[in-house]
Design goal:
Layout lengths: L1 H4 L9 H11 L3 H26 L5 H21 L4 H29 L5 H19 L5 H8 L1 H20 L7 H4 L13 H35 L6 E4 L2 E4 H27 L1 H20 L5 H15 L2 H12 L5 H9 L1 H5 L1 H11 L5 H31 L3
Antiparallel strand pairs: 1-2
Helix pairs in contact: 2-10, 3-5, 3-15, 3-17, 4-5, 4-8, 5-6, 5-15, 6-11, 6-14, 7-8, 10-13, 10-14, 10-17, 10-18, 11-12, 11-13, 11-14, 12-13, 12-14, 12-18, 14-15
């Protein structure tokens, strides 16, 4: 539930704010998209640092989540009242700290409490809150309508108050994993890496794969709005099941649902097939979605459907990468280890800003950008399917 609360902003709905902010301020879309970079880097670094506190009994997930609630409000309020693009960037940074703290608290708790045989689906449920939450939140927090009726400043201020209070309330339901449970870990959960050099090598390769998929995913997350505008779909209305909404609204809602369901589906699949095979399937499916989308950018309906396909394949990384790390290491320090891995997401935050400059400077077209995303996914699939299993065998059986 706590992860669901922050799903409505800023990552998965940020694309709705880019054009309205630019219409009012004329700061330039590429400069505005840099806010996504400051948010992403701050979230990743904060997750890595505060994961250590989640593992410690004197702090635990409750304190970390409360800190996140305060930072979430301060960051969104700063963005709402930003008088310059630099202040907008600072607001994104503070918001990222808040979301990073909550990420550390929620994932750290899930990694400790989830049993090994069901780790994939357990973490998938946790990740579903963040990825799929927008689908459930948007009907109650109609961001696009608020922006249209009240402006982006009022909308950001409202979100800061609502989400900050809700996250603070939910934080009181979180508790640390008891110390006596650490000593009672099952034999299955004690199958940890015993060869440190090979263990480090495996972690580095997993980290690199995370970076590659985060780059491609972050690019499509932030660029859906500008991409739709470039191809004349910003004001196009689509009707589905007697409901008429704009293309971008449908896109965000379907993408969010697909993103969340992905974490449940691939989490359960990985419990049966193992993590690397499930991850390889997802990465290849995402690459197919990128390539197909590059041929359908003038078709509003296919734009909605194919971005949904991309998100269905992309969303699993926030469930399967934690599960993979949970398989590799013991529970005592697992929150800190995973949160170190999560800093890889910060590199993904470079993608929206960099891609904006590439397209604006006419160095690449939107179609070429999608092919670059597909290439990154294929490379990640090769690393996970061919390299990581070999290093893991050496790490767990060094003889």
């Amino acid at each position: 539930m706590a992860m669901l609360m922050v799903a409505s902003f800023p990552q998965y709905t940020w694309t709705q704010f880019v054009n309205p902010i630019d219409d009012v301020t004329r700061w330039g879309k590429a400069n505005i998209q840099f806010t996504y970079f400051t948010f992403g880097m701050a979230q990743a670094v904060t997750t890595g640092v505060l994961g250590i506190l989640v593992d410690r009994s004197f702090a635990g997930p409750r304190i970390v989540a409360l800190f996140g609630a305060v930072m979430l409000y301060v960051g969104l309020s700063t963005e709402a009242h930003a008088a310059s693009v630099e202040l907008l960037w600072q607001g994104g940074l503070v918001t990222g700290i808040g979301v990073g703290a909550l990420t550390a608290a929620c994932y750290g708790s899930a990694l400790k409490w989830a049993p090994g045989k069901s780790r994939g689906i357990a973490l998938g449920v946790t990740a579903f809150g963040y990825g799929g939450g927008t689908f459930f939140i948007l009907p109650f927090l109609p961001i696009s309508h608020w922006i249209r009726d009240f402006g982006y400043q009022v909308t950001l201020e409202k979100l800061g108050i609502i989400l900050g209070l809700l996250v603070a309330a939910l934080a009181f339901f979180m508790r640390s994993w008891p110390e006596n449970e650490i000593a009672r870990e099952s034999e299955e959960s004690k199958r940890a890496i015993v060869s440190i050099p090979h263990g480090i090598a495996a972690f580095v390769v997993v980290y690199l794969a995370f970076v590659l998929v985060a780059l491609s995913g972050s690019m499509i997350i932030a660029q859906r709005g500008p991409m739709a505008s470039s191809f004349g779909m910003r004001d196009v209305q689509l009707t589905f099941l007697w409901v008429t909404q704009g293309v971008l609204t449908w896109t965000i809602m379907l993408d969010s649902l697909a993103n969340g369901l992905s974490r449940l589906f691939f989490g359960k699949l990985s419990d049966r097939t193992g993590r690397p095979p499930a991850m390889g399937i997802a990465f290849c499916l995402e690459a197919i979605g990128f390539v197909w989308l590059s041929y359908e950018l003038h078709n509003p309906m296919m734009f909605v459907v194919l971005t949904g396909l991309v998100f269905f394949a992309y969303g699993e990384i926030f469930g399967l990468f934690p599960a993979l790390i949970g398989d590799m290491f013991r529970k005592r320090n697992i929150a800190a280890i995973f949160c170190l891995l999560y800093t890889a997401k910060g590199f993904g935050a470079i993608a929206p800003w960099a891609s904006s400059y590439l397209v604006k400077g006419k160095l690449v077209t939107w179609e070429q950008l999608l092919w670059i995303g597909a290439s990154l996914d294929i490379l990640a699939a090769i690393l996970i399917l061919a390299v990581v299993p070999r290093l893991m065998r050496r790490a767990t059986n060094p003889t």
